[in-house]
């Protein structure tokens, strides 16, 4: 067998040291919160979790997936995967360290496709953990995993998009500052060129948080919840488009 074709899965010493730092922090500050989390809602836990997040930042362990220029550790994918495995010890792990879904994915989208203005307005506070976001794709009458089969429409009207549609199981919409919405902007285009991603602040008059949806008998609250959301003549500037129109699929 040709050894040069083998992948090297050896973990570098400095990465092992970093993983130990995450493990020790979890053991000391996060795992002891789990008994309290059993009896309290996520929203009730927020004051304590905010304190622990401040400690994470003080220890220099915040946002392992984010580039350093945006306040993170700038870990490469493999190292972040190893960190994520450690954080998975507890349902509070990723949130406490600022790398929780859907925010982490939205950060990646903004990093890759956001304009300078979008990055300053949305990515910067999101990366600092000052706000949360949600990703609005799944629909009640459609296969949520299929971006070529969406009912939600975003129609161009001058310098704005007007969005209409219903989404559900929009994770963490309760308390989010903005949503990244998957909507059809080009209905006559080929299937994979129909949908776009558009930023919608949740204080927009056309954004309506309908309800938190019960999952396995629990509604949840705040970050730990999934919601039904209605976009009702929701008007946002075209400058809120992420990447090229029709490029979301």
Architecture overview:
Helices cover 32% and strands 24% of the residues. It has seven helices and nine strands. The strands form two sheets. Strands 2, 3, 6, 7 and 8 form a five-stranded antiparallel β-sheet that branches.
Q: What's the quick description here?
A:
The chain is built from seven helices and nine strands. The protein is an alpha+beta fold and 249 residues long.
**Low-pLDDT windows of residues:** none
Q: Assign the CATH class of the largest domain.
A: Mainly Beta
Percent helix among the residues?
25-40%
SSE succession? HHHHHHHEEEEEEEEE
> Mean pLDDT score, rounded?
95
Note the main attributes of this structure.
single chain; 249 residues; alpha+beta; Butyryl-Coa Dehydrogenase, subunit A, domain 1; Butyryl-CoA Dehydrogenase, subunit A, domain 2; five-stranded antiparallel sheet; four-stranded mixed sheet; 7 helices; 32% helix; globular
